[in-house]
């Protein structure tokens, strides 16, 4: 894959020697790379620069990388690749729960880093309005949950629930098929525009955020259930 000219990456890493090595390597591969070395400055840099991709270290001075990811995820829609010095499943789970798109353990191997970056950029598709649904008044009412396509609003027990555009599109597809399995392949194709490749975690991340906003239990979800290896199911009698 040839790098698209002017693809802008933001590297957030406090190890100056490592940061310079990564910067030099990626610059050689035709990326434009900006650097930030403190976690407490990272959210402003991410939002202000709006890069095509963020490489985010997990351990940073001023603000932990996980907290940086949590702060910016609702405002920054590009992919986030997290780096960590620890090889533990819990670190990966936490990073993905906070909204990271992928996870790479140090020591960083140049070709692996490049492959992950290119894969994330290849999978990332800017949000566009769903073309397959008419813009007339469409509404799904499931007990206390109401999802209104015409106004793109969600209410639960009469209370408005703030969701992002991407979260709404996902919830709409689940609500239309409430009680039925909606496969990850279908969701990825409908919402991302390509077939599920076994690695893309964007749908899982949206599910995680929706569960939190809809009062679902992230450990034992009862409103949006995971059908392992297949997809998700919105439970009709859980609202």
From TrEMBL:
Keyword Nucleotide-binding: no
Occurrences of domain Response regulatory (ranges): 8-121
GO cellular component: cytosol; protein-DNA complex
Residue intervals of the OmpR/PhoB-type domain: 137-236
One GO term of the biological process aspect: regulation of DNA-templated transcription
Compartments, record wording: Cytoplasm
Sample GO molecular function, one term: transcription cis-regulatory region binding
Main subcellular localisation: cytoplasm
DNA-binding region(s), chain positions: 137-236
Record keywords, A-Z: Cytoplasm, DNA-binding, Phosphoprotein, Transcription, Transcription regulation, Two-component regulatory system
Post-translational modification 4-aspartylphosphate, affected residues: 57
InterPro entries in alphabetical order: CheY-like_superfamily, OmpR/PhoB-type_DNA-bd, Sig_transdc_resp-reg_C-effctor, Sig_transdc_resp-reg_receiver, WalR-like, WH-like_DNA-bd_sf
PANTHER family: REGULATOR OF RPOS (PTHR48111), TRANSCRIPTIONAL REGULATORY PROTEIN RSTA (PTHR48111:SF47)
Record's protein name: DNA-binding response regulator
Record organism: Pseudoalteromonas rubra
Lineage: Bacteria, Pseudomonadati, Pseudomonadota, Gammaproteobacteria, Alteromonadales
């Amino acid at each position: 894959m040839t790098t698209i000219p002017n693809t802008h990456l933001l590297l957030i890493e406090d190890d100056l020697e490592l940061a310079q090595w990564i910067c030099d390597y990626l610059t050689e591969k035709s990326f434009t790379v900006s650097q930030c070395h403190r976690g407490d400055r990272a959210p402003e840099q991410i939002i202000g620069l709006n890069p095509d991709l963020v490489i985010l270290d997990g351990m940073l001075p001023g603000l932990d990388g996980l907290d940086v990811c949590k702060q910016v995820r609702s405002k920054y829609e590009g992919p986030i690749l997290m780096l960590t010095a620890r090889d533990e499943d819990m670190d990966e789970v936490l990073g993905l729960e906070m909204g990271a798109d992928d996870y790479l353990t140090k020591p960083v191997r140049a070709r692996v880093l490049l492959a992950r970056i290119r894969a994330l950029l290849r999978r990332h598709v800017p949000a566009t309005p769903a073309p397959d649904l008419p813009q007339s008044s469409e509404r799904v009412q499931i007990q206390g949950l109401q999802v209104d396509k015409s106004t793109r609003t969600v209410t639960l027990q009469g209370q408005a629930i703030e969701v992002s555009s991407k979260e709404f599109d996902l919830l709409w597809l689940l609500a239309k098929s409430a009680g039925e399995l909606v496969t990850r392949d279908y969701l990825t194709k409908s919402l991302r525009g390509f077939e599920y490749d076994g690695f893309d975690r964007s749908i899982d991340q949206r599910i995680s955020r929706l569960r939190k906003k809809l009062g679902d239990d992230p450990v034992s979800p009862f409103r949006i259930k995971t059908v392992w290896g297949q997809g998700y199911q919105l439970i009709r009698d859980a609202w």
